[in-house]
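Moderator note: this is an archived Q&A kept for reference. The question asked for a predicted structure of one protein chain; the sequence and the answer are reproduced below.
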Amino acid sequence: MAWATRKVKVINCWRYLEDEPPIPSIRIRVRGVKGSLESDFRVDTGYPGQLLISTDLYEKLGLYLAELPEKEFGVYRTASGLVEVKRSQALVTIPGLEADVETLVETPRRILFKRNLVGRGLINKLRLLLDGAKGEDCVIEYE
């Protein structure tokens, strides 16, 4: 099998979050009705949505004011059972990329959630290089 060499341009990189083992992350700015906030989001390929954010961040940004109708809320099957999520639209920016992206943001409906996750729905729109040996991940472009 022949391997092609491709040149890449690195747009931006982030250090993995400290944990055992370390966790890939992306810094994302989320804009809601009441303002914007930049935070580190854990890269979670097991989460099929775009962004799953903490209950606190959902409230701070006023995303409940732009919530989709209840019939458009979702349910995910997790290792600990079914989790119902509220959904809202928000604009997100990834540092180094020029465009804002309209994104579906979710947070669990009936439980307090403390993490910020970026899932496959947004990851699959990026060229994301995971460099575990270096402990960083980077958004890249091919030259």
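Archived answer notes: The chain has a mean pLDDT of 93.
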